[in-house]
């Protein structure tokens, strides 16, 4: 029970730093879709995807290692060494790689000004992720959450000024991202008092090797998952054009709401999974949590499917209207991705980081193959289908592999009920009529009342206690 309380507490704290930024994203989405044409938006999406590849490679995912080691580190001296060597490693990495990235972008015939701005954005983003994990590793989750809000607010204000008012286009968007990352880093350095942990005299090659030994095997996983995400964009852009990639990017915005919600939980779950492994045999805990989490995630997914038509009508410009047809398939992808991330937390707890890379590589290959085989016949749907299939394969791979070291109990009946409700809602959503939307709403309500009744009762009981109602 203590672990569940801690998990819920950390999830709620981290949700503060996620839902507010997502609200900011929804506010800026109409600005971006109005001020950027489909080609500019497609290029913007490619730049973000490029960052998601380069940052894990250039940092060697050392931020993940720092977080894991700070959780179990009790000595102030050890904390200073871990933080000092990781900060120096990341800063030096970007200083060395910056000119190389600039030259490579030149080969792609990107304008010099935009090349410089992209290099700055990558550096600030990489440092932002490292400092964020340091703050979390020190147990300051609330300050971490507020740092994400600082980033989002600064980014949103910058977009309004640079993109909406000054009409700076793609350049304004990249500058806005850099401003957000920089201001958030400054905030974390100040409120978390990171400076007291930084001491140049604490440089230790042995400690750096220890961190990289843990983090380096995660890099192939990051690259593979990047391939799963970016191969869609690359194949779509190459075969269908940047405009279609812009449409695909907008289609991902609503499913990403689900991913964002799960990522809140996953941040807390990674910490809880490691602590549970260190304390005692966690098999029963993992099994129980998977059952509850599966039902809850399906319930959330059904609600999102029901409200998607309304969200699209309000937030998305008409030139991107055809993106709606991709959304139901993408929901499968983000759902199975959440299961993949759940297993990743257990992998990290057991320090089986090599297996994370193996499973991700399998999914990446499948994603690319499906994309190339079907993009000419079914067009943009190839990207959506390949994403869903690849994450499903990764989830099955990890479930099978983890079974070798931990026998998680699965409730097959509940799993089948959830998948049937899921597929029914997806099929109905393609009808795009009033009765089909109403049917999706009914399915979402019935499923949640039946399968998630314990969660609903617990939530109601908690509210009554807060309000002093007997």
Structural class call reads mainly alpha
- Number of beta strands: 0
Tell me, what's the shape? globular
Q: Quaternary arrangement of the chains shown?
A: single chain
Residue share in helices?
A: over 70%
Mean pLDDT over all positions: 84
The main pleated sheet reads as: none
Strand fraction band? under 5%
Low-confidence stretches: none
Task: Walk me through the structure.
- The protein is mostly helical and 470 residues long.
- The chain has a domain at 217-470.
- Helices cover 85% and strands 0% of the residues.
- It has 17 helices and no strands.
- The chain has helices spanning 2-35, 38-59, 62-72, 76-107, 112-137, 141-165, 169-191, 205-215, 218-240, 242-279, 283-315, 327-349, 353-378, 381-402, 412-429, 434-451, 453-467.
- Helix 5 packs parallel to helix 7.
- The longest helix has 38 residues, at 242-279.
- It is globular, with a radius of gyration of 22 Å.
- 46% of the residues are buried.
- The model has no long low-confidence stretch (mean pLDDT 84).
